[in-house]
Amino acid sequence: MSPEDAVLAVAATSLADGDIVTDRDILESYRFDRSTGSEAGQPFAVVFPRSAEQVSAVMRACAHHRVPVVPRGAGSGLTGGSNAIDGSLIICMERMREVLDVDVSNGYVETQPGIYNTELRDHVAKFGLWYAPDPASKDFCSIGGNVNTNAGGLCCVKYGVTRDAVLGLEVVLPDGRITRIGRRSIKGVAGYDLTALMVGSEGTLGIVTMARLRLRPLPPPATTVVAVFDDIGTAGRAVEDIMRRTTPSILEILDRTTMQAVEKWRPSGLPADAGALLLAQTDLPGAAGAADADVILAACEAAGAVEAYRSEDQEQSEMLMGARRMAIPALEALGDWLLDDVSVPRSRFAESVLRIEEIAQRRDVMIASFGHAGDGNLHPTIVIPRGDADAAARALLAFDDILEVAIHMGGSVTGEHGVGLLKRRALAEELDEPARDLHVRIKEAIDPLGILNPGKSLPRW
Question: Are strands 89-92 and 45-47 parallel, antiparallel or unpaired?
């Protein structure tokens, strides 16, 4: 019996028949995540466990027979982190979707990993509670994937990224053992912070089967500030000034190319002829919120905004924020796309966006820049005419150029999407030699057989 057949035999004794798929046509839809430009191999099967015990049984068999495993959630990743490799088994968590507990007194929720971000937020809202991390893909990304990539979102400027919300995890280790790490209490510093290590490890150290997530009280309705600028460099300087004065709950930026793409795809009333747009929100209540909005307005006007106003219309505010979340599908409608994700110090934000504009001109490619301006996290997206091989080659060069800008500015080659397959070489440039060595040693210590999501996330040089 082959190692693959032996693993499937164990899976058949642990999972229901419909939770094991070997049909090639179906497997094809589980080979790739949502990224472009990342390679993918051919798996021999995909399994859909419904409990940690089922994951454990399959993982033990894979370890025994040294079969590589690729964990997968909703497949919404953007760096190839859940792409299949040849001869791998995909363990897909999409059927583990139960909310296990909402502890109102202690302010946390325990959930299986397959539930979508929006579904979880809607569930805890019934208890008057709020889960803060909100990626733009929140309607179709899973909590497990958010944990694996340490996802951020629009609210992270004030409330932090996924790691800041994770109190504890249940994880199946590469040898099949199940462990619970973290805590239920607000404070706890016993031992190494294995929970923080697991968050953002992109499925290379373990498979998350439960996440215990910190909740907050539902915030009051937000006050929205809209500011229009002639160019994105001026808007970037406004961002730096805003963050010196206050901390908004959201601070987003869109350049002209992004606004024009959104308006073409789904008209939303954006000022598409302007150079850049800032969208800011404050969720402070009452008079405090109004005063905070005034601070943001003053910073925008001082930086040279051609128009800046406070939106008193909740419907308009929701439309504008919805337009920001539509940036990726709008750009996707224009052609093939290559989404970058870099983070720079706020003091160098304006300089960075101007450097990215220079890259677009030098490489003769379209780059739409948007992102979470308040924490310096940009998503420059390169749009390529479909079928244009020369443009595709220039796009790859521009992609690497943007990563070099981030490193030069003292930032990071990824702010929230992860390393996956696309950024392993760039990560090696960002880390010094001792840090690269530590990454390799940690992987070898936890996964000595190297079977869990091999070839992903680690620096490559």
Answer: parallel
pLDDT tens digits, residue range 153-169? 999 999 999 999 999 99
- Average pLDDT of the residues of the chain: 95
- Segment 360-374 shows an average pLDDT of 96
Tokens of 142: 């899973």
- Tell me where in the chain the CATH 3.30.43.10 domain(s) lie: 3-92
Extract the tokens encoding 416: 């929230």
pLDDT for residue 312 is more than 80: no
Architecture of domain 3-92: 2-Layer Sandwich (3.30)
pLDDT tens-place string over residues 421-441: 999 999 999 999 999 999 999
Contact 76, 33 (CB under 8 A): yes
How far is residue 31 from each of residues 35, 70, 98, measured CA to CA in Å? 11, 10, 25
**Gap between the Cα atoms of 188 and 145, Å rounded:** 25
pLDDT exceeds cutoff 80 at 140:
yes
In the chain, list all ranges with CATH 3.40.462.40.
Answer: 223-408
DSSP H or E run through 336 = strand 336-339
Task: Give me 446's structure tokens.
Answer: 């936890």
Once rounded to an integer, what is the mean pLDDT over residues 83-106?
Answer: 98
Biggest CA pair distance of the chain: 73
Q: What CATH code would you report for 223-408?
A: 3.40.462.40
Q: How far apart are CA 309 and CA 294, in angstroms?
A: 9
CB 250 within 8 A of CB 222: yes
Whole-angstrom distance, CA of residue 411 vs CA of residue 227: 26
**Minimum mean pLDDT range among 278-287, 307-316, 391-400, 412-421:** 307-316
Check whether domain 99-217 has CATH 3.30.465.10, yes or no:
yes
- At residue 329, the pLDDT reads 92
Name the strands in the sheet holding 307-311, side by side, starting at the edge strand that comes first in the sequence: 307-311, 223-229, 276-282, 250-255, 370-372, 377-378, 342-343
C-alpha dist (Å) from residue 131 to 159, 223, 280: 10, 19, 20
